[in-house]
């Protein structure tokens, strides 16, 4: 959602009740942003905010010296089994930060497979194919992923047409499959419809046997530009508790062009 700076005329004759001249709000468009500011300062004259100047703010996609921290902790307490931080280089994107954390996670003894990318789940059939066998493992033909998604055939009819299927590994795709043509197994012709979740950081990508653990992903501003290394509260991106052994432990990250949400700043005259 875009961010807007809504600025009222600082020279207006009617003084604002709390002396606020501007507000930073997240809204669908400029009209909604102006309305939100007027609602926030509803004790003021409506005219002041109806005539306010609205400027859309651009997202900062250069995360040089920003840090992404990923922690994997047991739900029952105790030390983290993983706690990694990656610092962005010049012109770094959020994807770069996530990939850096994945590389560090893969060096952690307790976590064998981590990934970053778009993940697939089974949605429906476009074509059930024929001559398949229960237990066949199928992989999408299209898309660019590491690892690739894999699906298991769980039941077939007398002609080997797939009746049910389930995901084995949701994969991590930089380019998602354009259609559902599937390869592998004993049959042919299967086409799946996928449910795609964008921009996922997986701390434990496949069956990990970690049990009940939680995943915390934080975005930390450059310490030199801020008072210490306090995480931007709204950029604690996801807290996930999978709750069972052998479950993928993953978190959906914000898109690369996002502006930190949940922020309302106001400017006041002295």
What does this structure look like?
It is built from 3 helices and 17 strands. The protein is mainly beta.
Chart the SSEs and their pairings.
Blueprint: E1 3-7, E2 20-26, H1 30-40, H2 46-50, E3 53-57, E4 67-74, E5 82-87, H3 94-105, E6 115-130, E7 137-140, E8 144-145, E9 150-156, E10 162-169, E11 173-175, E12 182-183, E13 188-204, E14 213-220, E15 236-241, E16 249-252, E17 265-268
Which short descriptors sum up this protein?
single chain, 270 residues, mainly beta, 3 domains, four-stranded antiparallel β-sheet, 3 helices, 17 strands
- Report the radius of gyration as a whole number of Å: 24 Å
Strand order of the largest sheet: 3-1-2-17
List low-confidence stretches. Answer: 226-230, 260-266
Structural class by SSE content: mainly beta
SSE run: EEHHEEEHEEEEEEEEEEEE
- Domains counted in the coordinates: how many? 3
Condensed summary:
The chain is extended, with a radius of gyration of 24 Å.
